Amino acid sequence: MEGVLTLFSDFYSALSQVNGFVTPKLAKRFPENFLFGVSSSAYQIEGSWNIDGKGQSTWDYYLHKQPDIVEDGTNADVTTDSYRLFKQDIQMLKHLGVKSYRFSLSWTRILPDGTTNHINPLGIAHYRKCIDLLLENDIMPLVTLYHWDLPIAFGKNGGWLNENTADRFGDYARVAFLAFGDKVKHWITINEPFIHCSFSYGIGLHPPLIKSPGKGFYECGRNLLLGHARAYHIYDEEFRFQGGKVGLVVDAQWPIAATGSEEDTRAVKDYLALYVGQYLDPVLKGGYPQRLLDLVAAASSRQGTESRLHPLSEDQKEYIRGTYDFVGINHYSSLMVYRNESVIGMYDEPSFYDDVGIGTYMDDSWPASSFDNMRDYAPGFYSLLLYLKDTYDNPVVYITENGLPLSSAEGLDDWKKANYIRHYLDALADAKADGSNCQGYFIWSLMDSFEWASGYEYKFGLYQVDFEDPDKKRTARKSALVYKEIIRTGTIDVSYDPNPYQHNGTVY
Ligand code: BGC
Known about the structure:
This protein is 41% helix and 14% strand. By secondary structure, the chain is of the alpha/beta class. Strand 11, helix 16 (415-433) and strand 12 (438-444) form a beta-alpha-beta unit.
């Protein structure tokens, strides 16, 4: 088949030399072993927050105490009820035909007080059942150890501002490798250091609600990197015989200079240093990006203090460097980026905004989702994949999250999301053809779930969930059917538009 495709493309590329001939796009094929998957996380889907010996996480504790943290006052005590309904979830995965499912373990379901003083056998038994059932259905588990639900005892003690949390995270990782490593061969240590540190320890939007945008934000990043590295070394030294792989997940949107000016070009580089390089450079290269160190040092000196970002010590650099077998990237959108010094001083204390002085917006020409802050611009995704290839020596990359939210009003006919997925997979296929080592793609999310401080308004699911229904009925949306066909055929074809609302032709 590939031979035929090449033949056609040679033929078309010859024709395209002829004046006025428009080359049709050809369907693009993914390799047989490309990992198509979907993602979720424990707090967002499990419910059963106090069942079978589970201890409390920061989210359980703070949302009970202070419900107004969440826009609609909700929490995830029940959410999609996946702790009870996991068999249904696995049937949905089977129906989609995914090759892999990314989900996270709840730290306090396994270690109720966060430490190894007490290991909860019911927590371990639950996840073993899930993993076994996935494997019986030929679905590879991609397991995240930490997707933001920190044991409350650590949350009350500075959370990730406290280096002790990194050590305790290592202990927890060891228990997980011991309990599940015979079956789980793909591990993610932590999810999204930038979002986690800025929301939980920077602007104080997520538990444990710490506001320290100029210092805590960076300390959290450093401790997450140390925790990640600790888990990696434990795996490397004690569990390599299990034959698995370990990586971390970084959120990375794609910045585009708003104008050709020198300042906007620099703003793009500053953006990448702060949002992406801060976490990827220490792991893939060694140490923080010099640009970031310089930016924070300059802003701190203007503010009359020593740099709020301390370089990693030589020992820390060594400890963190090279701790990856693959890199997970969560990508949702591109952003127009420009120099904007008016963000400097936007908090009544120093902040990371002061360090970079950039503004961002979304281009109006990019198709919007129901929400203005998420738009469909796949060329940026292509650029990001090539940037990762060129900047970091072409690591193995899995796109561990990509997706578009809908509002409740949009129901099951989510063509915008279906098309977004098609565009992003098309861009991914192009990036692979141009050398990116991206080996997997996971949609956020399998089903609608609790969206942190936004509650239940954003609907990211391939499956709709009826949260009013005691059985939390799940129904496939159009996007699920479109994704299923992409997986089944292993090809992406954007030469036609299947959206009946934008186009009167073919209906998918
Ligand atoms: C997080 C998910 C979240 C998603 C959509 C990511 O930042 O990892 O937990 O639900 O974005 O908001």
